[in-house]
């Protein structure tokens, strides 16, 4: 099997990224891998689509640090191939990282992903589904029962009124963004720095304001879903609790959050089941739910992370399950010879 991992940039990858774990698992299972970035597509005059990928040398790596060094080293090969010869294009870029400095690159994965799917590659997550999820407004399409009460606005008056109606405070963040950037807890509409926070964050576009969930002090639960269902292996779920640093409201690992083991309760599984139908409909093969109490704060459909921490905590390599699922999809694609649409294959 040939797998192309689409990322924001080669230099931006790290040994602890989930993409690293996925790539290493693919290599360990005997597959060929490429790393591709937003500038690596070529649509030729004869309507063929090529990708220019970076290939790390060697076949197997015992440590992610070794794989990462090989990927970024001078010995990594640069190869060009027709996308029809690529079995799976795995879209693993974060559009928000390119939105400011390289806006042209933010949605290249979904754009060219559609063309790749039309030429026979399996593209996950489905590019049409990802196009629907280009910002946090996508989350509003899920059942109200699993969502915090939410306001989306650029009006400071609307936001102040919303804050006044929630005595435990609110969380305010950009509608487009990730990694815990510009996330603030606002306790009252009378806070002295509210106007300054509003001016700083609203410069990025619309704001999303949610009622604060007191259970967030204990962190959130990141739960992976694959093919619409909780990812598990040997009785263990692909999940962690992300505990915020002292004085922080953000539990993101990039924001100094700490990953600890977590027990997945029937209540959490019920939340996952509630969102499954839409994830299936939208072709979301691999997603991360961020859960606090009985609510989902976010659904990460672009670059859900945490597999490396789960390997350390549980000694389970969930990446192997993910690559195995892709192998099954390639078998199904070949058996049906193009009859099944990419969005269906993505979560089959």
TrEMBL record:
The keyword Methyltransferase does not apply. InterPro entries: ATP-grasp, ATP_grasp_subdomain_1, Glut_synth_pro, GSHS_ATP-bd, GSHS_N, PreATP-grasp_dom_sf. Its EC number is 6.3.2.3. It holds the Pfam family GSH-S_N. It catalyses: gamma-L-glutamyl-L-cysteine + glycine + ATP = glutathione + ADP + phosphate + H(+). GO terms for molecular function: ATP binding; glutathione synthase activity; metal ion binding. Pathway: Sulfur metabolism; glutathione biosynthesis; glutathione from L-cysteine and L-glutamate: step 2/2. Keywords: ATP-binding, Glutathione biosynthesis, Ligase, Magnesium, Manganese, Metal-binding, Nucleotide-binding. Belongs to the prokaryotic GSH synthase family. This is Glutathione synthetase. It comes from Shinella kummerowiae.
């Amino acid at each position: 099997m040939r797998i192309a991992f689409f990322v924001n940039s080669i230099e931006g990858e790290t040994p602890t990224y989930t993409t690293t774990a996925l790539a290493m698992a693919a290599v360990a299972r005997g597959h060929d891998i490429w790393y591709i970035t937003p500038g690596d597509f070529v649509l030729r005059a004869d309507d063929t689509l090529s990708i220019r990928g970076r290939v790390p040398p060697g076949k197997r790596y015992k440590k992610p640090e070794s794989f990462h060094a090989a990927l970024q080293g001078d010995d990594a090969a640069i190869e060009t191939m027709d996308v029809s010869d690529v079995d799976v294009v795995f879209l693993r870029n974060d559009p928000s990282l390119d939105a400011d400095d390289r806006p042209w690159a933010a949605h290249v994965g979904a754009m060219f992903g559609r063309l790749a799917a039309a030429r026979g590659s399996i593209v996950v997550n489905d590019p049409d589904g990802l196009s629907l999820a280009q910002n946090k407004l996508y989350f509003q399409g899920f059942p109200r029962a699993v969502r915090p009460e939410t306001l989306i606005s650029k009006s400071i008056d609307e936001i102040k009124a919303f804050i006044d109606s929630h005595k435990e405070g609110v969380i305010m963040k950009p509608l487009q963004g990730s990694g815990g950037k510009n996330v603030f807890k606002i306790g009252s509409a009378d806070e002295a720095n509210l106007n300054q926070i509003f001016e700083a964050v609203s410069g990025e576009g619309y704001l999303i304001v949610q009622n604060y969930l007191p259970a967030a002090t204990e962190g959130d639960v990141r739960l992976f879903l694959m093919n619409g269902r909780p990812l598990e292996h040997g009785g263990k779920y692909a999940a962690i609790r992300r505990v915020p640093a002292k004085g922080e409201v953000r539990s993101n690992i990039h924001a100094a959050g700490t990953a600890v083991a977590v027990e997945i309760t029937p209540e959490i599984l019920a939340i996952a089941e509630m969102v499954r139908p839409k994830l299936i409909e939208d072709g979301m093969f691999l997603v991360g739910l961020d859960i606090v109490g009985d609510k989902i704060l976010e659904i990460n459909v672009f670059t859900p992370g945490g597999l490396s921490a789960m390997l350390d905590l549980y000694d389970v390599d969930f990446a192997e399950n993910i690559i195995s699922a892709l192998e099954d999809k390639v078998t199904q694609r070949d058996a049906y010879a193009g009859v099944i649409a990419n969005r269906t294959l993505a979560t089959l």
